[in-house]
Amino acid sequence: MLAAAHAHLEARRSEVNDLNVFPVADGDTGDNMILTLAAVRDELENIGSRLPRYQRITSYRVVRAPLPRTQLGKLRRHLLPALFDGAVVERSKEPAALTDEDRALLAEPLAGEVWRWLHERFPEHELSLDTSPQLELNVDSLGWVALTVEVERRFHASLQAEQLGRILTLRDLIGEIDAAARTGARPAATAQLAPPGPVSRALGAALFILARLVARLLLRPAVTGLEHLPPGPALIAPNHASYLDPVAIAAALPWRRLRRTYWAGWAGIMHSSAFRRLVSRATQVFPVDPDRDLTGAIRTARELLEQGYDVVWFPEGRRSPTGELQALEPGVGVLVQGVAATVVPAAISGTFAAWPKHRRWPRPGRVRVAFGAPLEGAGARPPAELKAELERALRHLA
Q1: How far apart are CA 40 and CA 21, in angstroms?
Q2: Beta partners for 297?
Q3: Do 390 and 237 meet the contact criterion of CB atoms below 8 Å apart?
Q4: Directed axis angle between helix 109-121 and helix 100-107, to 10°?
Q5: Do the Cβ atoms of 285 and 322 come closer than 8 Å?
Q6: Could you tell me the residue ranges of all domains in the chain?
Q7: Phi-psi region for residue 94, left (φ > 0), alpha (ψ -120 to 50) or beta?
Q8: Is-contact 287 267, C-beta < 8 A?
Q9: Distance CA 120, CA 122 (A)
């Protein structure tokens, strides 16, 4: 995407250069800058409307100082993230006056309730119906996950990926929520939520038996803390250092518990071919694609927990390149919001030595799996607080 954007800008270099000069007389209110920012924002929205949601620019910053460059004039790219984080978001335009259609929309009971909720949700912003969630409220992919979860809980309306892709302004968001609530739309039952058939269950049982046998021969797992697993549904949250981590967890869980456990697996591997999709279906692995549809994966995990299943979710989001615990992704806190499920940390050690990221094949080793004490009141706690406590628990267990 960046390469395509660069080529597009290069082709329009003269126009872009014209936008970079603002001959403002003393005392000018800055209307030229505001109008230009409005044009930039509108063009970003116009381009974004033709792209999949995961490819859209979600935020921008205006920096008045020169960008840091080397003596040869090249950008010092390693300094740009800090410059971006420290820059102030500038308003691209003043709030537009409400049209008759807007007033009619906000006069609807649900639309008015959503509008009040949005003001509570973003108290530091001056909202208008033309406000862009992506460009002005900095709603990124995880932010959309949190919003859709909250929308489902508050307004009993389910926003699917296709609907989210149409949202460019708060006006669009309110309209989509209103439409979803009127139709009573709920997430369509996915293949991951449908019970596997007898052939698939038999294949899954055979694969799990094989995995547990290989684990006992190759990894010799030592398991502690099984008493911390609750009788009800649990979100099992292990660290992730190796492809062997799911095998270690599968070997550690009691058989009956294992057969009612679902697994979050990266779509780029577990659903990349027909054979892998077959294996994933048999072993109850549902796809997670953090770039294209993280919302769908979190929705699937929430529904599985609500139906009484266990879910194994790796909160780091990827394998550790060093074997050490990485910073956790905040999605785990959003996942359990309002769900009556227990979060159980699980520390796995020894799998990185047996099969590190750079090694092509595993080697024998000794693996330890330790289930920690469940985190109290997980579903009622702020996502950031839950994520921080889970990270502390995993470090303590390691």
Answers
A1: 14
A2: none
A3: yes
A4: 90
A5: no
A6: 104-183, 198-397
A7: beta
A8: yes
A9: 6
Amino acid at 265: G
Instruction: Give the residue among 287, 311, 305 at the shortest CA–CA distance from 297.
Output: 287
- Helices marked H in the chain — which ranges? 2-11, 13-19, 31-48, 80-86, 100-107, 109-121, 141-155, 161-165, 170-183, 198-218, 245-252, 255-258, 267-270, 274-282, 294-306, 331-335, 351-354, 383-397
82 token code pair = 């800090």
Contacts of 387 (CB under 8 A, 6+ apart): 315, 328, 329, 330, 332, 333
Cβ neighbour number for residue 54 with a 10 Å cutoff: 16
> Pick from 330, 315, 314, 339: which is nearest to 143 by CA?
330
Q: How far is CA 89 from CA 17, 95, 128, 265, 346, in A?
A: 22, 15, 16, 36, 40
Token pair listed for 336: 């359990």
Write down the pLDDT at residue 74: 79
Fold of 104-183: 1.10.1200
CATH architecture of 198-397: 3-Layer(aba) Sandwich (3.40)
Task: Work out the pLDDT band at 73, boundaries 50, 70, 90.
Answer: confident
Whole-model pTM: value is: 0.69
Distance of CA 369 to the CA centre of its chain: 27
Q: Where are the alpha helices (DSSP H) in 21-94?
A: 31-48, 80-86
User: What letters, b where the CB count within 10 A reaches 16 and e where it falls short, cover 77-97?
Assistant: eeeeeeeeeeeeeebbeeeee
Structure tokens at 241: 């250092």
Measured between alpha carbons, how far is residue 118 from residues 30, 107, 156, 239, 299 in Å? Answer: 29, 15, 16, 35, 21
Comparing 35-44, 223-232, 259-268, 364-373, the range with the smallest average pLDDT is: 35-44
Taking only Cα atoms into account, the Rg of the chain, rounded to an integer number of angstroms, comes to 25
List CB contacts of 171: < 8 A, sequence separation 6 or more: 102, 105, 129, 130
Q: Which amino acid is at 297?
A: A
